[in-house]
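Lab notebook, page 48
Experiment: co-folding of the full assembly
Goal: obtain a model of how the components sit together before planning crosslinking
Operator: M.T.
Materials (sequences as entered):
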Amino acid sequence: MPNTSQTDLKDILPLSPATFYILLALPDGPKHGYAIMKEVEQMTEGKITLGPGSLYGSIKRLLQDNMIAETDHRPIRALDDERRRYYALTDYGRQVLAGEVQRLASAVRLAQKKAVHNGTI
Amino acid sequence: MTLPSSSVRAVRLVTRAYYNFLTLYPIGFRAQHGQEMKDLFEERCMEAYETAGIMGVGRWLLKILAGEVISLYKEYLTMMADLIERNRDAQKALALGMIFLVGTWGTLFFMAARLVLPLPGTVSFATGTLPGIVLVLVNALLVARSITHSERIEYVAGMAAMANTFLIATLLAIQSSLGSLPSVALLVQVVLIGLHGHLLRKLRGNEMTHDMQELKIGE
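Observation: model returned without errors.
Model output:
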């Protein structure tokens, strides 16, 4: 499991938009690929549309980096398709996501401060 | 999900085309995620069809097309990087391959320069083509010696994917400098993907047929 020191996060961040939104789709519980794809589309109002190749390419890398893990936990077993694989955020993935949110927030704060200061907003 | 039979046919046709595209991915990646990708594609296609008919499917395909092609090449690059990381001979082979690519680009450069400057043809041959030919032979020899049969197939496929990317990038650059439409580059891309698929089918032989059958289990 990768260690989550500050240096590690610095090496990983910034995340690509696709990776960021995939991670952001997972904090409220495990999801299968289709649900992740739909959630990303909804969150970005269709600005990011992931095809199966891009989605599973990212999922593969996230699995390798231990940011997400495959899980047997299924939200509603009776309504579920057995072939589906569910993915959940790991503790490490949660830390990476928090780090990225923090980074983006400070970038927005800085931009707002600068824009307000210059009177461009 | 119940759809009218014409819709099922349309979705099936698009899905079938996607199966063929899926077979271009490296074997390891397909073994891990191929079935999921197929299911997801089918499900999303049906949803797009239900929402906006065949135009909806078309719009969705256009949105994801570039990302899918990029992800195909990305998987080959990752696969080759993994292969090279754990194999010293393959490292040498890749280094030589890279020199070969530089040599080829050098040749192209000299060929272009010859159009405007009175350089002798032997200069471009000596700087690019000849070392290029020697290096590609050494590269092939080293790769053949150092990795297993199935890895070799994937390596060749990866090299083909890389060459494909370089060619498209060059075409796009030429087209943008000439200000012509990108349609030719797109057409070439489609033809090259087809050729890439044909090459893989030849190389992978029965393995590919078996793979296609596996992907169709969920139909």
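Interpretation: DSSP finds seven helices and no strands in chain B.
Next step: discuss with group before ordering constructs.
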